[in-house]
Inverse folding.
């Protein structure tokens, strides 16, 4: 099968996984996007022609990873296009439910086959072994198609929205196909809801002053986050700490984990910001995927700020259908935990991701329990208390990142032990790397704290125009002289 | 709230969200912002470029995985014959490809890689290609004989997996950036520059990191690497290069395996190399080994750790191959090695012509002259 995208392994964060494709941080993408943008704004051609151009560009974009996997995109597109029509046309509840299940099992079947097949077989073999049956799992050398977790959820949401009578199916196959394939967010989100994007394809976007340059400025910001902060300042520390097999002192364990917390934010938020910017430059709006999550006060707040498109997807299509908080306190906690465990598993076929999700489920459950028992009061509303809660949230989030980043449980426990018990060991980080981590993490926390209740657009509007220009030009300069290593985005492997 | 997925106005119903949320765009004079942004960017980049040019940097090609792969592709493009060079930085720096072309009429395919032993590449040529020409194998003892794969062996994976996107990026870079920008060099990358500053204090308990090898050469499109004149002419920079090698030579290493295990590993190595050589010969090709010069502490350490009679000589015996050792030929020693390991650029022409002469003679004496080396 493919030679371009390898199966993700826990803890394998940097490197060539997915690196062969049309990465935003590659010269090929710069040329590709320049051509797409030029064609898009050429004065000739109807709106339909422009959309066909975007569709072809999107397929080219995806083919840059692995041309045969375009077939999967077609299957996913055709499946939900047809299923949604059938659901809409059906009057019987049984038929509607049946067609909905076709979509769910179809999409999850594709996802399961490519993403979880080896994991399931390995765990089945381990389970058999525990009961004394030696069973050898067959080789499962299946390559993970890049972005499959994102676009299957996106197309599934389309059928589910029609089933839940939240929306009617699209009447344009071209618009729906473009929605599934739209290249800025195809491989790593944001997971766009059909109702938010398909209608935007109906007509040529109305002119909006500053949309193109602001979109490009957002792309610069996203690339700055990815190339300078994630890959340049933070990844070396995270790689060194999580890559060593020896015990590291608590200082290094914390620095490595703080570095990873900043790296994964800047990597993923950098991708989302670039995707939002690229879409905006083409005239389309995508919703925010991050809202300064490290300033979150509590975990429900955190999940309103981190990977918003996934958390709202899980809320709307998993937590709420499971009953949400409508079936009593006990069931609410079960629903919360189930949602977060599956959310963890969505990230990758590994138990470390499940533990990561389980920890978040536990945090959310404990927070809910305390809020119901204690509730907000005069003290909890004070600024020092809020800051203390935000710091506690950040601390606990960092603990979860250990499981997300570690290649195995042995590494995770070793680092957790060192972090929490002030363990000793041999330092692995040079002073320059330590300084990079401290500066970058401090800057991230400062920005998140200051921007917690603000939007970047409002801040940019409030700045003098020359300051905005200097910041954008400066970020572009630092990004270029960092000379990125063309490392793939972390979330490509999910 | 129900919302419309429909593209058609006619399907929108009351009670549904009519329009998807549109992103706000900051208010501002965007034309002026765009012009000033670009001005700041270009001005800062010009200053950065000027600074690095004042530090002796000049535009050259990056010795990248992509350039190596493009060079490797010549094997398929130019047919199964020709000359391929594999090895480490010595044969990369020391062999002058233009002199080679003058002597033989063809530019050899330069696949040597710094910090990397030749063996995986000899195996690759033997097993994964139809190559049937002449393979020149550079033998740098600390890289050829140990079992560690070396710095850049993973380039074989890149070569196998390179995507169209990576190929296009490589071509764009070689067309629009590398020939014009001096700062576009791994040695001037921001975090590389920051990390090598001397003001960082050592961390207590932290073992010193292995020093990063600074820029030593300028790469041409053919992958000819000429020693950077700063190494030769700037005493301070040359000392940095020498100190790096000293740190490398003095770095603590894990204890070697027991002598019998070492012997077994060496026998296995000879067997594997001989098998690769046989396979290439069976297709009509030939393999020759070249021990390029070293001097000073490097030469002493190599002689101590990898004595010729226990490494080089058995290698030639096991492979029944021609080998040219610089110690056997006065004209191969008549070169300047500013940092003890590589020949300065102006001596490579003479060295290469002399080497070709010795190869011709040795192959002729053995009764296996090669057309690839014919004048």
């Amino acid at each position: 099968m493919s030679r371009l995208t390898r199966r993700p392994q826990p803890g394998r964060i940097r490197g060539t996984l997915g690196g062969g494709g049309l990465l935003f941080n590659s010269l090929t993408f710069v040329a590709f996007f320049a051509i797409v943008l030029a064609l898009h704004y050429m004065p000739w051609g109807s709106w339909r022609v422009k959309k066909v151009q975007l569709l072809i560009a999107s397929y080219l974009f995806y083919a840059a990873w692995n041309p045969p996997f375009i077939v999967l995109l077609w299957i996913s597109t055709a499946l939900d296009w047809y299923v949604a029509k059938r659901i809409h046309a059906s009057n019987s509840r049984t038929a509607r439910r049946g067609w909905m299940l076709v979509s769910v099992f179809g999409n999850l079947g594709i996802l399961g086959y490519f993403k979880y097949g080896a994991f399931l077989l390995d765990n089945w073999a381990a389970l058999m072994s525990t009961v004394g049956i030696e069973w050898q799992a067959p080789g499962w050398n299946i390559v993970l198609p890049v972005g499959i977790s994102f676009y299957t959820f996106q197309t599934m949401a389309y059928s589910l929205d029609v089933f839940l009578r939240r929306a009617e199916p699209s009447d344009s196959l071209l618009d729906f196909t473009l929605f599934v394939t739209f290249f800025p967010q195809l491989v790593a989100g944001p997971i766009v809801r059909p109702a938010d994007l398909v209608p935007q394809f109906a007509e040529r976007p109305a002119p909006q002053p500053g949309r193109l340059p602001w979109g490009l400025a957002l792309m610069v910001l996203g690339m700055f986050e990815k190339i300078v902060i994630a890959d340049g300042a933070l990844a070396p520390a995270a790689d060194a700490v999580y890559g060593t097999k020896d015990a590291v002192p608590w200082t290094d364990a914390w620095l490595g984990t703080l570095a990873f917390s900043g790296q994964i934010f800047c990597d993923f938020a950098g991708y989302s910001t670039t995707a939002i910017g690229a879409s905006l430059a083409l005239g389309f709006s995508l919703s925010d995927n991050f809202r300064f999550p490290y300033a979150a006060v509590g975990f429900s707040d955190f999940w309103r700020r981190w990977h918003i498109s996934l958390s709202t997807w899980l809320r709307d299509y998993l937590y709420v259908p499971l009953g949400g908080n409508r079936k009593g306190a006990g069931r609410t906690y079960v629903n919360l935990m189930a949602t977060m465990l599956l959310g963890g598993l969505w990230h990758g076929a590994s138990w470390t991701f499940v533990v990561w999700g389980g920890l978040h489920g536990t945090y959310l459950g404990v927070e809910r329990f305390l809020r119901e028992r204690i509730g907000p009061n005069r003290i909890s509303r004070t600024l020092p208390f809020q800051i203390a809660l935000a710091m506690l949230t950040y601390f606990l989030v960092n603990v979860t990142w250990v499981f997300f980043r570690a290649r195995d449980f042995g590494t995770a426990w070793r680092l957790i032990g060192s972090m929490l018990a002030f363990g000793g060991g041999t330092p692995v980080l040079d002073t320059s790397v330590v300084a990079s981590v401290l500066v970058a993490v401090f800057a991230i926390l400062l920005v998140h704290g200051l921007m917690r209740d603000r939007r970047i657009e409002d801040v940019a509007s409030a700045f003098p125009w020359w300051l905005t220009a200097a910041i954008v030009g400066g970020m572009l300069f630092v990004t270029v002289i960092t000379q990125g290593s063309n490392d793939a985005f972390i979330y490509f492997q999910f | 709230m129900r919302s419309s997925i429909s593209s058609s106005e006619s399907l929108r119903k009351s009670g549904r969200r009519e329009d998807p949320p549109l992103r706000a765009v900051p208010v501002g004079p965007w034309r002026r912002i765009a012009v000033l942004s670009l001005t700041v960017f270009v001005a800062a980049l010009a200053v950065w470029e000027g600074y690095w040019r004042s530090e002796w940097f000049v535009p050259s090609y990056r010795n990248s995985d992509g350039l190596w792969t493009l060079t490797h592709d010549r094997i398929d493009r130019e047919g199964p014959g020709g000359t391929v060079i594999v090895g480490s930085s010595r044969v990369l720096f020391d062999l002058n490809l233009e002199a080679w072309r003058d002597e033989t009429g063809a530019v050899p395919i330069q696949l040597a890689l710094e910090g990397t032993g030749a063996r995986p590449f000899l195996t690759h040529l033997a097993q994964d290609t139809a190559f049937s020409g002449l393979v020149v194998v550079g033998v740098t003892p600390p890289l050829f004989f140990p079992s560690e794969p070396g710095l850049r062996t993973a380039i074989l994976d890149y070569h196998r997996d390179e995507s169209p996107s990576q190929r296009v990026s490589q071509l764009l870079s070689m067309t629009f950036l590398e020939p014009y920008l001096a700062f576009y060099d791994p040695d001037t990358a921001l975090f590389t520059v920051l990390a090598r500053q001397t003001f960082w204090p050592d961390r207590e308990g932290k073992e010193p990191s292995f020093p990063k090898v600074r820029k030593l050469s300028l790469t041409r499109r053919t992958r000819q690497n000429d020693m950077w004149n700063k190494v030769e002419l700037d005493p301070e920079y040359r000392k940095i290069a020498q100190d790096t090698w000293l740190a490398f030579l003095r770095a603590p290493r894990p204890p070697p395996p027991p002598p019998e295990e070492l012997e077994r590993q060496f026998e296995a190595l000879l067997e594997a190399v001989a098998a690769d050589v046989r396979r290439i010969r069976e297709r009509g090709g030939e393999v020759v080994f070249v021990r390029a010069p070293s001097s000073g502490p490097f030469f002493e350490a190599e002689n101590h750790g990898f004595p010729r009679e226990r490494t080089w000589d058995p290698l030639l015996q096991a492979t029944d191959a021609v080998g040219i050792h610089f110690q056997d030929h006065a004209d191969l020693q008549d070169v300047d090695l500013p940092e003890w390991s590589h020949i300065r650029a102006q001596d490579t022409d003479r060295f290469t012509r002399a080497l070709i002469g010795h190869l011709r003679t040795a192959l002729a004496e053995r009764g296996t002259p090669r057309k690839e080396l014919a004048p």
Observations:
- Residues 3-201 of chain A form one domain.
- Residues 197 and 359 of chain A are 33 Å apart (CA to CA).
